[in-house]
Amino acid sequence: MQDINLFDNHSLHEVVQYKQVSQLFNELIPETYKGLYSMHKYWGKKPYNIVRSFIERYTEAGQIIMDPFCGSGVTAIEALFARRKAIAIDLNPIATFITRATLLPVHPNDIENEYYRIRNTVGASINKLYLTQCVQCGAEAVGTHFIWESDIIKKIWYYCNACKEHKGVKTPDQTDYERIYAIETQRIPYFCPQTPLYENSRLNAYTGMTVADLFTKRNLMALSIIFHEIEQVKDSLLKDILKFTFTSCVAQASKMVFVVKNRGKTRGNTKHEREEVGSWITGYWIPNERFELNVWRVFENRFCKVLRGKQEVFMRLNGYYSEAETYEELIQERNILISTRSATDLSNLPDESIDYIFTDPPHGDRIPYMELSLMWMSWLRMEADFESEIVMSNAKSRGKNIKDYQRRLALAFKEMHRVLKQGRYMSVAFNNWNKEVWRAFILSCRDLGFEIVDITPIHYSANSVLQDTRKGGLRNDFVLTFRK
Fold it and tell me: Which whole-number Å values give the CA distances from 120 to 113, 140, 226, in the listed order?
């Protein structure tokens, strides 16, 4: 591969149009997020099979791989599956929580048993919050989907055990409205977060908004009941996996679930014109027409997905998981170290101790990770160091501008350079059209003495609003590989 000068005055367009990029590009076909990678949403996930290919190209079994911006843990997970050792670091506590919960070696039967205990304890009482009357047989039925327009319920989907039809759709009657009004006067039985959101118009977070404002009163009540019951679980590992299940379902229990219409028509199938359930997109947009979903059903559906994912992890790890608390433990007898800290301070790692780095740092202002994580963190009562985040944000109160971003990113790469062994490699996924953001990344690496050896464009696993939150990103991420 010829030398590529990324440091002169050429436009970014000319750089990314460079034709002699890595031949890996044609070999790397991204696989869709499924199984364990569909258990919990997170932003900007890289295709796991492509991450795995980089790990296998640049390392051997038993070597240490680090990701100081680990996100949902794809690098660490694939490193363990490839029988390497992993160090997963992220300033965002929800990121390290997701990574650990994904990998925890808990037997699926134990998870399932604890779920059934919770279901038997609170499932029926939660469903009582959603009672309605079947229009076919007049029996009491459980509402599953409530379509709201502004502040009024317009339609109810329900399930009736007494009726041969089982599923039905109705227009709310007076009794339905009275039930809603009665719930509004009740207190929420247990903890629910009142955490303020950072005012950020790009995320549809406005002055005075709190996490609680993202939910109906009824769904807050139901969520508080489930979370309280999870808190009663005695086994700490099981409790973390059930909290992981809880946070993975929270968004779908919010007001942010939009109504999809006419999808059947666009597919040429007029038989499927009924409203369909959308899903949470990035930001805190509450659509005028939206679904309120029965929280127990949301939790139950998500649990089934988590259980399948944990079965896959349990089988593939086959006992190859032992978490270290220090680097010394990692090299002696353990195989993963997970740490919630800034990439600008890797003081828990000695010089030249890492065999390979694969990472995906924040790409300027594309994704304000910690602001978007507030909904999850607040339920788990997590404290987060927002000041140290490497990001550009439209939240003016944070002061996260390009100068702060450039300074912190340079410090992070300085630390990565320090801990990486001489002659070893660092691969960095990056994507931003802003020339200043791009240069902040490239110059940070060049000034430290990293030598660029490979550029590999990669596609996403699927087009997803979770990949980006604003225009200006390139169609592909680029993985730039450097040698120390």
Answer: 11, 20, 12
- Residue identified by tokens 């436009």 is 11
Residue pair 343/68 in contact (Cβ under 8 Å)? The answer is: yes
Task: Quote the pLDDT of residue 267.
Answer: 53
Give the residue, 372 or 434, on which the prediction is more confident: 372
Tokens of residue 362, six digits = 């924040």
Contacts from 29-37 at CB under 8 Å and sequence distance 24+?
Answer: 29/459, 30/458, 30/459, 30/460, 30/461, 31/461, 32/461, 32/462, 33/461, 33/462, 35/308, 35/309, 35/312, 36/77, 36/102, 36/309, 36/310, 36/312, 36/313, 37/72, 37/74, 37/309
Query: Distance (Å, rounded) from C-alpha 353 to C-alpha 365?
Result: 31
3-state secondary structure 110-168: HHHHHHHHHHHHHHHHHHHHHEEECCCCCCEEEEEEEEEECCEEEEEEEECCCCCCCEE
Give the per-residue pLDDT at 444.
82
Instruction: Specify whether the backbone of 482 is left (phi greater than 0), alpha (psi in -120 to 50) or beta.
Output: beta
Q: How far apart are CA 356 and CA 424, in angstroms?
A: 6
CA 427 from centre of chain: 22
How far is Cα 377 from Cα 354, in angstroms, rounded to an integer? 30
Q: Tell me, what's the pLDDT at 100?
A: 98
Mean pLDDT of the chain: 89
Q: Following CA atoms 435, 436, 442, 444 in sequence, which dihedral angle do they give, to the nearest 10 degrees?
A: 180
Domains in the chain, CATH or no CATH each: 12-105+319-483 (3.40.50.150), 108-305 (no CATH)
